[in-house]
Amino acid sequence: MGPLLFLFRAPLVIIWIASSLLSVAVVYPFLPLSGRNAMNKSWSLALMKICGVQVRVHGQPMMSGAALWVSNHISWIDIFILSSIRCVAFVAKSEIRQWPIIGWLVAKAGTVFLNRRERQAIKTVSQQMEHRFTRGEVLGLFAEGTTSTGFDVLPFRSSLFEPAIHGGVSVQPIALRFYHRGVRSDYAAFVGEQNLVQNLCVLISTTGIMVEVDFLPVMSAEQCQEMGRTKVSAHAHELISKAVRMKQPPGPG
């Protein structure tokens, strides 16, 4: 079934890429922020359908107002999973900008890029994040700084929690769990020596990819300011780790 499924889905991915590029180049510049957000969400929903990724949401996501969504990180597709729920501008390492096509699209979608080689990188990114918060946007942060197989959570980097605290916005931890044909799996994880195209080919050649998205209790702006970034980061890590280690998927949310 794999080769046949690939032959069916690959042209759909190409159409999705072409239509996305055209929309960004021709339509995007003339849309207000709300229109761009709606378009980004539509792209993400379409990609999930094309790739056959089922997204199951649990908990109560913050669907309005500025917030920092903090999640564990398993694959490049995490960006589109979360953006299919609410349009999210992500904080991401600058290397992602170099990814074929996807890098350009996420840049146009408002991604804040962190260049770790620059001495003032954290300061620059923090200023951009605070500006986004003043516009009522939600920013997504993969605080591990890299992808993992998804069975546990790597240590968090706490520095980029500071803009949320300084900007007076709430922080919502999110746990992602990937399943393949009903079994907890790293099948779709973007790790090791795989490149983006190879991982995409793996994804569109199979069925039964399901992602549990657990929206965990929100830490209010007041709580975050009282705790400080180190404790906020540690608490988010604890909540996400506990949810990630669940062995069986919970019932419908």
TrEMBL record:
It is found in: Membrane. One of its GO terms (cellular component) is membrane. Its main location: membrane. InterPro entries: Plipid/glycerol_acylTrfase. It comes from Eoetvoesiella caeni. The keyword Membrane applies. Keywords: Acyltransferase, Lipid metabolism, Membrane, Transferase, Transmembrane, Transmembrane helix. Pfam families: Acyltransferase. This is Lyso-ornithine lipid acyltransferase. Residues 67-179 form the Phospholipid/glycerol acyltransferase domain. GO terms for molecular function: acyltransferase activity. The chain crosses the membrane at residues 6-31. GO terms for biological process: lipid metabolic process. It comes from the Bacteria.
